[in-house]
């Protein structure tokens, strides 16, 4: 894991206010702060209590805040999510954890027909400030039903906000921002990031939803990446630098609503665009980024086709080598960007 | 409320004041006329979309909501006009909604299937069968967590009881002992499919035992019977003793929606049930107990007719939304 | 409704073999043929028996084929779809109707975790030849939970095939092709099309899945449209012709897998691309078409940004005028294309 | 099969031949050693991903599948190794699957959570809790429609019984009278959540009445008890009398998956259940009835040990998939 968060946050927080923690710990810290500061906050999910969550995100919070606040649900994703939606509409601030984002398929109705639309359908007379967390992505050897990246589904749905923090710093700050948001916020967390470390401010702070961040400046090509692909892209950018290619890397952070201006400004500067994401390439978030740029004024600045590096057209395979082959790796980014810059694509 | 029951005196008569009982009858008549007015507007092409009328089910809606305090909440269904009126909504703003106007309860964005009156505690009809059940449980969780003392009434149909959401929600309400009452309005059909063909139990209330909660089946066309059953369930919920399932046997006189050709049931069945008209039944009981006179009922009808006519007029004359506002309220506008 | 199907099919079938029928009747005809020819075929869905289906697609088929073949399910979308998947994996050929595509949200798990992945996860040892039908789209005044166009969700999922026939001819022929397909095929049918008429061959024929069709040739701009937007685009093309703009209109028909070559060839010819679809614009199928072209060699032929005309970022409103404002109309296409061709976009 | 029961003679003893009973014991031992071998390979880093071991639940898998004919089918769960072996799969191809090899049952694409042996009638484990339940009902529908005479056994856990899919599936199986047997392997926990905290009934079999089907709870660590209950249910299904729900009480000795730290249960509880070892119990019964000797059991153990060792060797030496084949079998290749 690269060290970007340090540079990033150093501007805002003095070193003494920061502490190194993992992505999972940063989320737990945010949850702890939220539970402590606001009695309306509750956590719901499967095995988030004494077990501490399948990925140990909630950890020992149940011991501190009690079973009434950190609620183990039965294995009932549709009903559980719906209870969170109903609770949010009536005054609580539930944070619902899907054990794996794949299981959220069972709850699409409550997320997309109810939570996303309730405010609109009711003429603005209600808010649904529910936060949902989706551990996503491949790399754990858990095969096709435990490795998906389905964030594009939710980003297709008006009424939702959808974020993909890539660092411990953002994981904490964006979760705290989500809790202050009056509308439903969906957080996709890549499982492989849970153990990644970074410097995180102590106490309460927020990182705005809807703002992308330039993680690395460059002049030859813009790489727009999400979640774990931000890290892979930064690693690729280092290698590309060695062969004289200067890549700008944008961490999109929020995929609904997209920070259009940050992306377009970068493309106007570099004239080349590569979108990198783990989800299935077809209709993944890179499709939207590409289309957004291709229909904007930035189109006129483009010196090359827009390259997308996304997941292969397959369920995630079990075999570890196939599993890697199914999603973009650092090498793929290096090769793809190099070809693009050299006009070979 | 006490649950006294004098011999041969129906629960409602002994437990509600004459004013309350007359108001219940008025609400039932209002629902009937409301639905007829809506049907008429629809037929005349003044209202578009679809609608699901609750004519024949008035006692179920009114009798259930009688058991509530004003602060209590309900979730409703696609067949939700009656629930909305019963919980205290104004006919004018409901009609305005059907006419797609800014003065409608949902500012013309929701229509019949999403009619709601959040201020009066109606969290909304729902276009998704069983979609409101988990939401009701969530509202009950809020009430318990924040000690609001509210009870939530969750309406759904017989068809909804075969949805997974029903099962998951009743289970959670039970294990967490939440203040919610599940009211299954069993009108014998989910659209065209009879409960015999869709549901593997005889009485839907028999399913209550799968969630260790009380289950009872009552005549939903008898205002007193339904209000009694729901009152017991509401008191239980308010006392912290958890949820109940009340099955209210009733019948819709009209087709499922406006496109129904009634091919799945007989004329005889329909007319048999029309003979059990809940309004006539309550009228008779109230007259029997000298709570109201025939003339007073006529007066109610006249005033309700006027209320409906005024409501439709209000709706028609109300302003339409501006086309620039098509995406308003998708998200909360942040005024910072 | 324009008359394109006549010209289209006249080449293949002699007039005497053709009969005019509605889109719904054409589907019913296909279902009838399938039930008659193959005892493994069953229909499943809510109120598809004596009621004839919410949109009268199955009509009186239950009387002809019996309740054992035309099966009214309880209101249990997840379980019902799952039963169809299990039946397909073991030898039946179920055709499952969702009453409205919106309710398929309840069944995403069985569609996307099971049907789509079963063959892959089991190493190719099983086929899941299930066909599912999704009445979709707005225009009926049924508001936010009964008017969605969610086809992009399914097109994001490897293992599924997803089609959107626009004419009675294709509705019948592609359904019969879907039944011959060994893999799960998802059919999105726009409700407003059910009553539209066209000439349809008698008896059995198939229209291939995966092939787009040029509905109208043109030289100035390529319009790639799906479903009902094919008709709106053809109407717009007529108006555009009057102001001297020659639009080529492609009916995409299949959105997974996309007929890449037909689209790219057209763009190479016209140098301009407009994607028209009813679903929410963000991450709708137009995003994929745009991105596919922007990353291809056809990029070099583009003389203008790629325009997408899709649904507004909102749940579908109830008010009929708002409802129209929420999805592209003929005028929007005319204006959009004109601006693009004139270089105003 | 007849359901004779001599006084004090367990069902299995009187209804199965000595060969069948010895084979049952052999399969249970095979499952135990299989799981231990898998655990060992996992611990040594030879197998990646996660796995859910069924040590302690061997009688439930074997006793249930004993009631089946070879043509009958099963659907299984994430904790599916035992079911797979019980239905006749080879250890070698199962290990090859865990090692991600082309010789594996799923050609290395599925792994532990999707282990299947379609040829032997195992339609597959499932990574989705309750995901296999509707699929089993669909398979039973096929059997009924095409008059195949097959019965489908549907395994799932106690945790799965709170999923909507459970409710919807049992309801449909009942109204359509399908030849399916639902076997809930109640090992007291869904991951860390006890049935007391997750499930609003005492016995999961009590939920059968909500679907008007027979429901029974049996000691799932007693091969005879489980095989008897499932036999009755299978015969009922095969006779066209519809589905049943069998609750098999058992216990997993290991954690839920490899990352479990067992914080939700006590050491005492675990050791109490280890005292009810289903293999020791069956061994004792068979010896008591002179169906097998201690020496013969030892011989089985030795041969099973070799079978597992050979299987692991086969798996290790098998070829890996080619990276070019990453999208193979996403769709059926059409050879035209
Ligand atoms: C999830 C879902 N499935 C199907 C429908 C279509 N639908 C609307 S109402 C209805 C019948 C509902 O029956 P019931 O619950 O008994 O209510 P009733 O109409 O009898 O009041 C159906 C099938 C829907 N709206 N939502
Ligand atoms: C839909 C779904 N929700 C959650 C999970 C995560 N999960 C896997 S197994 C399991 C516990 C299942 O409990 P049970 O059904 O009792 O089976 P057991 O593990 O005890 O054999 C959970 C929560 C999942 N795989 N699928
Ligand atoms: Mg009904
Ligand atoms: Mg269990």
Topology:
The complex is a heterotetramer, with two copies of chain A (345 residues) and two copies of chain B (336 residues).
Chain A: H1 4-10, E1 18-22, H2 23-37, E2 41-45, H3 61-65, E3 70-72, H4 77-89, E4 93-97, H5 108-115, H6 118-121, E5 131-136, H7 151-155, E6 161-163, H8 168-180, E7 185-190, E8 197-201, E9 213-216, E10 221-225, H9 228-242, E11 247-251, E12 254-256, H10 260-270, E13 273-280, H11 285-294, E14 307-311, H12 320-325, H13 330-341
Parallel strand pairs in A: 2-3, 2-4, 4-5, 5-7, 6-7, 10-11, 10-13, 13-14
Antiparallel strand pairs in A: 1-8, 6-12, 9-11
Helix pairs in contact in A: 2-8, 4-5, 9-13
Chain B: H1 11-15, H2 18-43, H3 58-66, E1 73-75, H4 81-86, H5 91-98, H6 132-145, E2 152-157, H7 164-175, E3 180-186, E4 189-190, E5 193-194, H8 195-198, E6 215-219, H9 223-238, E7 244-249, H10 267-274, H11 278-288, H12 294-317
Parallel strand pairs in B: 1-2, 2-3, 3-7, 6-7
Antiparallel strand pairs in B: 4-5
Helix pairs in contact in B: 2-3, 2-11, 2-12, 3-9, 5-12, 6-7
Bound molecules: thiamine diphosphate (2 copies) and magnesium ion (2 copies).
One magnesium ion binds next to strand 4 of chain D.
């Amino acid at each position: 894991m690269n060290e970007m968060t340090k540079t990033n946050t150093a501007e805002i927080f003095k070193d003494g206010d920061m502490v190194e923690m993992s992505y999972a710990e940063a989320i737990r810290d945010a949850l702890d702060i939220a539970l402590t500061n606001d009695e309306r906050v509750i956590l719901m999910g499967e095995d988030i209590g004494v077990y501490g969550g399948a990925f140990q995100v909630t950890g020992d919070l149940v011991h501190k805040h009690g079973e009434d606040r950190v609620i183990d649900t039965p294995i009932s994703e549709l009903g559980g999510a719906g209870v969170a939606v109903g609770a949010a509409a009536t005054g609580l601030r539930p944070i619902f954890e899907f054990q794996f984002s794949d299981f959220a398929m069972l709850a699409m109705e409550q997320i997309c027909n109810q939570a996303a639309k309730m405010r609109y359908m009711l003429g603005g007379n209600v808010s649904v400030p529910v936060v949902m967390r989706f551990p996503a992505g491949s790399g754990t050897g858990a095969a096709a039903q435990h490795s998906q990246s389905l964030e594009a589904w939710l980003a297709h749905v008006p009424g939702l906000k959808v974020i993909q923090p890539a660092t411990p710093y953002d994981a904490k700050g964006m979760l705290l921002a989500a809790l202050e948001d009056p509308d439903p916020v969906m957080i996709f967390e890549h499982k492989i990031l849970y153990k990644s470390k970074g410097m995180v401010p102590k106490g309460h702070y927020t990182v705005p939803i809807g703002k992308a961040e330039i993680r690395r400046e460059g002049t030859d090509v813009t790489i727009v990446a999400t979640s774990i692909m931000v890290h892979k892209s930064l690693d690729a950018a280092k290698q590309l630098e060695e062969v004289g290619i200067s890549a700008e890397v944008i961490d999109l952070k929020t995929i609904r609503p997209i920070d259009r201006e940050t992306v377009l400004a970068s493309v106007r500067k570099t004239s080349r665009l590569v979108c990198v994401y783990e989800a299935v390439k077809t209709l993944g978030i890179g499709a939207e980024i590409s289309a957004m740029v291709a229909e904007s004024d930035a189109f006129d600045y483009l010196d090359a086709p827009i390259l997308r590096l996304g997941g292969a057209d397959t369920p995630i395979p079990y075999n570890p080598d196939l599993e890697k082959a199914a999603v973009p790796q650092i090498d793929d980014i290096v090769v793809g960007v190099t070809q693009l810059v050299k006009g070979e694509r | 409320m006490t649950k006294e029951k004098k011999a041969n005196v129906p629960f409602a008569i002994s437990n509600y004041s004459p004013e309350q009982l007359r108001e219940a009858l008025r609400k039932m008549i209002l629902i009937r006329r409301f639905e007829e007015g809506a049907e008429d507007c629809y037929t005349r092409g003044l209202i578009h979309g679809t609608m699901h009328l609750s004519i024949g089910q008035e006692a179920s809606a009114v009798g259930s909501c009688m058991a509530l305090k004003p602060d209590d909440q309900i979730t409703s269904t696609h067949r939700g006009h009656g629930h909305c009126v019963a919980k205290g909504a104004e006919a004018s703003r409901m009609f305005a909604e059907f006419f797609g106007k800014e003065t409608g309860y949902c500012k013309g964005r929701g229509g019949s299937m999403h009619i709601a009156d959040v201020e009066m505690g109606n969290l909304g009809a729902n276009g998704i069968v069983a979609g409101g059940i988990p939401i009701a449980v969530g509202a009950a969780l809020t009430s318990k967590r924040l000690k609001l003392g509210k009870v939530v009434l969750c309406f759904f149909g017989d068809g909804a009881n075969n949805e997974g959401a029903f099962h998951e929600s009743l289970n959670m309400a039970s294990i967490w002992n939440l203040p919610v009452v599940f009211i299954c309005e069993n009108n014998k059909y989910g659209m065209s499919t009879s409960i015999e063909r869709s549901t593997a139990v005889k009485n839907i209330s028999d399913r209550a035992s799968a969630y260790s909660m009380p289950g009872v089946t009552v005549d939903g066309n008898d205002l007193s019977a339904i209000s009694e059953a729901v009152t017991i369930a509401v008191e239980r919920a308010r006392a912290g003793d958890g949820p109940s399932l009340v099955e209210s046997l009733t019948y819709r006189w009209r087709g499922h929606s406006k496109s129904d050709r009634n091919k799945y049931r007989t004329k005889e069945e329909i007319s048999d049930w029309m003979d059990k008209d809940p309004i006539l039944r309550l009228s008779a009981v109230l007259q029997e107990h000298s709570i109201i006179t025939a003339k007073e009922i006529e007066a109610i009808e006249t005033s309700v007719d006027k209320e409906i006519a005024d409501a439709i007029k209000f709706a028609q004359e109300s302003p339409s939304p501006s086309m620039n506002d098509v995406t308003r309220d998708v998200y909360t506008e942040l005024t910072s």
